[in-house]
Amino acid sequence: MSDKQFAAALALTTLLSSETLVWNSGCGDAEGTTFHRAEVHQAAGILCHRLAVPVDDALAHLRSCSFSHQRAITDVSRDIIAGRLRLPQNDI
Fold this sequence. Notes:
Shape: globular
Structural class: mainly alpha
Order of helices and strands: HHHHH
Strand content: under 5%
Helix content: 55-70%
Distance between the termini: 11 Å
Number of strands: 0
Number of helices: 5
Largest sheet: none
């Protein structure tokens, strides 16, 4: 992703709340949604540690990655937690 594309994605994610991007898997219950939010925050914590950035920056990066790859933020989060996706530090 180019610097210009990243800046555009970051600007867009600033406008959107995390509530908009936390997609429910279709179960329709509040408990399922809470679990998905936990996964997003776990992935952000991992990014925070790996990339040595504040949590807000890690969440923004997670949202940007989700948006730029047209994937649900929970799917990206699960891949980060499972070690299937490692985001390079130079993307921040």
